[in-house]
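The passage that follows is intended for readers who have already worked through the single-chain material. We present the inputs for a multi-component assembly, then the predicted structure in tokenized form, and finally a short commentary. You are encouraged to pause after the input and sketch how you expect the pieces to fit together before reading on.
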Amino acid sequence: MSTAVTSPDFLSKFHLGHALCAAWLMLFAGSALAEQTTPVSFVNDIVPVLTKAGCNAGVCHAKAGGGQNGFQLSLLGFEPQEDYDYLTRQGRGRRLFPAAPDHSLILLKASAQVPHGGGVRLEKDSQGYGVLRSWIQQGTPYGGDQATLSSILIQPDRGVLPPGAEQQLKTIAHFSDGSTRDVSSLALYESNDSAMAEVDDSGLVKAAELPGKFSIMVRYQGKVSVFSGAVPLGAPVEELPPSKNFIDEHLFANLQQLGIPPSPVCDDATFLRRVTLDIGGRLPTEEETREFLADTATDKRERLIDRLLRSPSYADFFANKWTSLLKNRRDVASDITSNFAFHAWIRDSLLANKPYDQIVRELLAATGTVIANPAVAWYKRVKEPKEQLEDVAQLFLGVRMQCAQCHHHPFERWSQDDYYGFAAFFSQVGRKPSGVQGEDLIFHKRGVAQSQNVKTGLMVRPAALGDDVGEIPPDHDPRLRLADWMSSAENPFFAKAVVNRYWKHFFKRGLIEPEDDIRDTNPPTNPELLEALEKHFVSSKFDLKELVRVITQSSAYQLSAIPNEHNVADQQNYSRYYPRRMQAEVLLDSIDDLSGARTSFANLPVGTRAVALPDNSYNNASPLLRVFGRPESTSVCECERRESASLAQSLHLINAADVKAKLATSGGRADRLSKAEKSAKEKISELYLAAFSRQPRPEELDTALAYLAESRYDANGKPIDPKIVARDNFQDLLWALINSKEFLFNH
Amino acid sequence: MNPSRITSFALLLSLLTHAALAQSVCLPAPRLLTTMPMGGQAGSEFELTISGEFIEGAEQLVFSHPGITANKSADNKYTVKIAADCPTGIHEARVMTRLGLSAARVFTVGKLPEVSQEKHSTTVQSAMPLQLNSICNATMPARGVNHYSIEAKKDQRILVDCAAQGIDSKLNPVLIVGDKDGNDLQVERRGGVIDFLVPDDGTYTIKVHDLTFNGGEHYFYRLVIQELPGEVPVIRQPATRAVAAHSWPPFGLPPEAPLKEHDSEDAQKLNLPCDIAGSFFPAADVDTYEFEAKKGEQWWIEVASQRLGRPTDASVVVQRVSKDGDTESLVDVAELSDIPSPVKVSSNGYSYDGPPYNAGSSDVLGKIEIPEDGTYRLQVTDLFGGTRNDPNNIYRLVIRQATPDFSVVAWALHMNLRNGDRNALSKPIALRRGWTMPLEVIVIRRDGFDGEIELIMENLPDGVNASGTKIPAGKSRGIMLITADEGAPKGYANATFRGRAKIGDQTVTRPCQLASMAWPVRNAWSEIPSPRLLSSIAVSVSDDETAPITIAAKERKVWEAKTGEKLTIPLLHMRRGEFSGKAINMSTFGSPFESFKFDLPLDADSSEAIMDLAKTPPGEYLIALYGSAVSKHRHNVAAITVAEQEHTKAQETAAALAAEVTRLSEQAKVASGQAKTEAEKSLAAVTAEKKAADAAVAAAEKRVAAAKSQANPKDIVDIIVSEPIKIRVQPAETK
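Having made your guess, compare it with the prediction:
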């Protein structure tokens, strides 16, 4: 069983529910047609009716394992020949009654004239009912040499819809014989952001108040197309921050088009804290903050970015991200060696700025032992070729292939041959047992790479998502050919997937969302920007540090998080910085840094930071890491990391024993400040610099000074020792800072 | 499973675990585990400290080369002297103990000056300064990183190497060169070296830690900081050889290959036979050679790479070049990869199901038969080499006509001694009197050699005999049995061990190399064993302990019988202690008697082995009976007497001092003036001595208790082997 975590809405949209089905059938109600006299085609007429009515949805008669109540259909009509057999030859022929079509069980059930678990699917007077009836009356023909569906086109395919405006979409089916047909009423429509625009079953789009870009996915009989829409805000965009590079040009052009004025560039303190958290996964030290704020050079932000990229904390932070996605998971104690080695390999590669395509190549085509070649550890975690192809496609190409294992991908062009063609790249991975239980030596097993399509039973040669990679001799490791294909400059997925992933890292939201679901029907919100990023990345020879550099140097990244009067509703176009809660590891390190405590992790030297943890095993021992959603490394999806807020998180920070212990650490910051020979003002200044990378504002300073000056009394009303009071007061101040949004969020 | 069943199951499991823990595996054997330092400079003299297992009262420290000598200076301390002309490289240290000569620990002799690190340096601030061109002997703290600092000049080439697993350490070293503040500049985690070109004059930090931050005295290493001229190739620190390496090189092969691989896209032309050196470089390298051959020719192909110490998996494909006009096609003739172990190696299952040693290799040894006259292409690839760019991954390819030969390797026999037993203990050939130790001997046969192989061990200590079962024709396994007589004197010797066979009309002998585990691994699930080849075969006898039982034929003679008869061999059981269980399930070493099994009673002094010779062909055979038994072992009983004597002596000293205190007290009472002052002074001094003596008594009491506790009978299961028995089977009488 696959353990991949899939975005919940992905599946729910795919496996259409009863409620949605019920809504569709109403489309046909009240518009009964006269009996059709032209020959009815099963493929081109009947299957679309069944699909539109939801009969062949995954929760209805296309349910895996035999359909529903003995009646089975292929998912979304992808296998019409099988559906024809199901309908005409199974159920002892009782489903169809050409002599009296209205007494056919399929019509009686679909119109709920006899009890039907799915309720009314087709009203008796609907168009769909009529088509089915005509087909039965004509003797249930399959349709012979009929034209096949080539593509569908949407008219129009793009448009600008002011808030509240409507746009009727028209879906035209193009057939192999050159004919066309308006299938608007039979096509399925879906908006990618219903808060921005909704679409009904007839293809009528209605824009909401939220400004931005949206898309409407249109599906018809395995073909897909998309309408790209924009809802402008229409506010005047008079002042734009300086354009530092191509990112700004494309991003600000989009804001101008939508009429969303951006927030100004943030101040130095905010930038320092933001970029240090985003690149190094840590808070700036007080010394760094003082130096940066005092620096008057005009290029100090660029120099800071370069310094951070050179630092081991960059490698630690991004290794943390990648090793989790690459499933560096500790299941048994003996995994420790391979996990440490694998994590270190990623971390060292990032530190040395090994080109991204080379890192992926070393991973994909890893051979040998874990110690001699730590990338081999990936094959310890991901053992089956199917899992290997699915993970590689999703992680490095942003393509989710899971569906195509069993059926044609409903939102995409991927067939089962594409799936097994991709799996064939991994068919020559040989394994030999090693001295470690569960750990194999990986080698290239000589032979012709191929994989069996379980549906057709035919052997499929390696093919890369529809691209021919040529003949692979038996002596050549097919995985190297796959790596060659991935890293070619023309590859439509490889660079796009990673620049989008990194964009999301810095901007909270990918240009394509989810970041690992790149498909024609899920277009980017700013295609020009994404393409420019891709080109820049490829021309830099897959230089990850350069990618980070170009993103963080842009004014777009440096915008203030504080909204102006217009852009507060913008959640998509990056007109301001979108604040994010610190991720679990960064938060733990930040609390340690602020409190002066140090979390001790098993098997690791004292002082090891949480962002440098090699695997998931530390989650068990750290309640904070668990509560704040550190992933267990079971999935290639970033969504495994829980970034949402919860009551448990608030309670943890307010009252958990581990947090309180950190505040009270002997020799920690509260303890030290309470004893230090400097003014209260200086001490408060240190606290603010450490927590927020800025000086306290006057009102904050006054509040803190007043609090520190408060006396304390015990239960008997006697004054408490001032030394203890001072320590407790500093602990309280720290506690208050840690529980503030300004601390918890990168902003 | 319902909760109550789960509880019952857990209880049962816990009981079983306790039962298993109550029984140890293998009688105590002396093992030298650490020396500090782990090596030294030729021509130097220094203090060396040892630690180990069952080496209490260690006596002489013995090295495998006479150029290294040692004198005991204190308990577990020696003054070691290395002769100036002592060869550099790997040697072995052992220590003589009451149980015999210990298991070996690697000792390296080099040319560079050495230092030993006395305390850990776990921060940049506490970094230990090192000189260029020196070696630092150190141990790793658990969850720690040792820091060192060097001064270097811009453009200097500095080589940072770390000998660890190659000198028997458990350390899996990570090397980091950092700036003066310890920020990483260059990292090496795969056991390689750091070849560092100094960017600027200044101080640099060198950090060393274990891959998983393990530490302790068993995690020792030799850190080598060396300045190298620009183009000089890197030479690694000497290391032990893997067990697989026993079969390399073939006898008579010159040290250097006469031919070198060309860096060319085209196939390199060869004339057979040939001997060529190449490397699996760059990544995904495919080296192609081309040669002409005639139909019916047979060629043997051998590739060494893993056996040269490289982490590779060589593979050879031979194809016939077929031409149709200008179109060329290739037809597979042979695909060769791996030299499989001739016997089943233990899997990763619950218990051992084969030896935990692998005599095979991931190298290549195989034959091709030429199907027709023509041109042939041979491709050499590294199946591990798809993405690795390491020019040090070298290979040597030999193509020759059949040169039948063999290579033998031996190790102390491992058996599954109890449920779930996965012990991989290092087993020195340290014999108790009356004990027979079996070595398992495996042969890798070369180029079709199929004959019988005799096993011969010589140069043994007095009172020790060794007899080997033959490795039968076409088979792969024999057993060498080393027996210490009941009256053998304490001693040791460096033995020679050879295999002898008739190849064609020549009798050839080949050295049999001995392999051993580097560590006494008690459970190979929790610690991966580290087998390696030893450079010497040390055999010793202890006079302190005797075997718990000696099983021998009633007479040391050749037992004669005829094919078809039943042979009865009366056996004597010389029992010297108690056993758990009533009988030993005996099996038999020595072809063709391997299927003979019987139960040997443990409560009797004799028994009979009755063998059916119905299908035994005439011939001379050597067999031994073997099984396992749980004996009640008392460890170092003599230590109780010694401790008690020391205790008595301490008590006597304390009593004498007590009397003296009483006397001086009385004297002080009656004395006056100066005499009183002096008496009081003496009293104070003696009282202090008395206090120290009382403490010595308490310490001696503890030692007595410890010695008694240690000598408490303990259930230990071990392999029991009879003395070798010779049998001569005569042809059946014809009627």
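Commentary: The first helix of chain A runs from residue 8 to 14. Chain A touches chain B through 45 residues (CB under 8 Å). How closely did your sketch match?
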